[in-house]
Amino acid sequence: GESVGLHLPTLSVQEGDNSIINCAYSNSASDYFIWYKQESGKGPQFIIDIRSNMDKRQGQRVTVLLNKTVKHLSLQIAATQPGDSAVYFCAETQGSSNTGKLIFGQGTTLQVKP
Amino acid sequence: DTAVSQTPKYLVTQMGNDKSIKCEQNLGHDTMYWYKQDSKKFLKIMFSYNNKELIINETVPNRFSPKSPDKAHLNLHINSLELGDSAVYFCASSAVQETQYFGPGTRLLVL
User: Fold this and answer.
1) In DSSP terms, which residues pair with A72 in a beta bridge?
2) Fewer CB atoms inside 10 Å of the end CB: C or N, chain B?
């Protein structure tokens, strides 16, 4: 069945280190992928996205990598800061419909140690 | 300046009651959504509307009825509330096939 999964439920990193959060998806027809950050008590906040015609996309301190061969997505955060502590979700859209239906992964909690 | 807003932020009610959650977006988007986030943080889509027309209905019990009076608003009415309805409900909006932007959530607790 359809699923988007994350490899680790919790990731703990030292402030200043780089963080890598992984995600696996199952539907090879998915063509748009998004990373969201959810802080405690708030709604998911868009971080970065990537379409299936790209392998890599960079933002400010964040990079998303897409490996369509193994259906794997990763989010890299450079120089992780305490403010990066949150739950991170990957999400995908499936098929060619225009419904915008997003399938979310289960989330990885990022803990940044000072 | 709030792009996607929801009211109320917290909702505590008794089993069997009927309640509504309101959502408004000022982004000019054509599509709006309702998601449910359970206690394990799992987010699942419930409904989406495009220009006031229902596009997605993800096998949600018919006690849940979304209503879109105009494309900037998508309200969620829940009849005969059950304990299992306790969750955080998020509204979101987007342009077609573009990034979805989420509201702050409504925390529903059914006693």
Assistant:
1) A24, A67
2) N
